[in-house]
Amino acid sequence: MVCMSTDPLPVSYSIVVPLYNEQESVPQLYVKIIDVMDAIGEPFEIIFVDDGSKDGTFRQLSEIARDDGRVLVVRLRRNFGQTAALKAGFDHSQGEIIISMDGDLQHDPAEIPKFIEKMKEGYDIVSGWRVARTDAWLTRQFPSRVANRIMARLSRVDLHDFGTTFKAYRREILSEIHLYGELHRFIPALASWAGASIGEVPITNEPRKSGKSNYGISRTIRVLLDLVSVKFLLDYSTKPLQLFGVAGLFCLSGGFGIGLWVFIRKAILNEGLMENHGPLLLLGMALVMGGIQFISIGLIGELLARTYYESQNKPVYNVRELRGRRGTNAGRPDPPRTAGAAGR
Ligand code: UDP
Ligand code: MG
User: Fold this and answer.
1) Which atom of ligand 1 is nearest to the CA of 19?
2) How far, in Å, CA of 298 to CA of 292, rounded?
3) How many angstroms separate the alpha carbon of residue 18 from the centre of ligand 2?
4) Does domain 13-235 have CATH number 3.90.550.10?
5) Per-domain boundaries in the chain
6) What is the mean pLDDT of residues 192-221?
7) Stated pTM of the model
8) pLDDT tens for each residue of 209-232
């Protein structure tokens, strides 16, 4: 039998939602998204990424995908984390504008049109801004506020809220950005570096009604560390020797200066090296060694930078299977649209 596989039609919008154990939210989330997107009246698709859920999330999603050709379910092999799940969704999306949001109903699909309108003003990225937050103040709001301020300063991107996933992107922008760790919240920073224009729309922040948040205070620390690496990536990834080399030269010249001074004292005044200047001599030696270390790290960094730029196709996730959005093939088991990407 000849089986014609029809490629899905092009769409204007892709709604990308990562889900980890969100079975209580799925039905309502789906209905809400469909209501809003139908009202907009342009072609769209919904990409649900099941990030290794252990509850009924995948079963529910695949039922939805079976009945609705606009839905694609990407099921990851295990829990890879929100950033990797988002990336999997982005990679499988086809819309010209990609809108990402959480699947726990903390983001209200009714706000999607605001993002689309703002995008139509010509922005490359539109970011949600949780004006009034509902999370715990001490463990979530306060650290997030501090992190946002630091991020705005370091990345020179003038946003109030980096932390929310409710965002819209133009497809070209996303295809150029590589996501690791907790990096999804730095997409605007990374994109602005590539020259993207970034807008902001206020959004509401619903309290979580079911399930539980996957994060607590520990995320703040990981985000701050990521911040260091993003700052480094933005400013020095192509020239690490300029950062480490400066520190190295500084130490080296201090060390040699001390050495010179101590030897002159010895030569002229015949002062004992160790007896009279022991601590200073040690400091000088430590500085020289530190300087050599810094310069070596800079050189290794230069090597790594070259590897980094040539190996960016490394996948950060691994797809188990795809369901739905297969046109005429709906309803029968399909070969996966892409094979597992690991190991390439
Ligand atoms: N999520 C995910 N993989 C994870 C953790 C979270 O796909 O390992 C999803 C989760 O289902 C939700 C979104 O990412 O749709 C945001 O997660 P969560 O609500 O736990 O974060 P918070 O809103 O507390 O920042
Ligand atoms: Mg949430």
Assistant:
1) 11
2) 10
3) 11
4) yes
5) 13-235, 240-342
6) 82
7) 0.76
8) 888 887 777 777 777 777 787 788
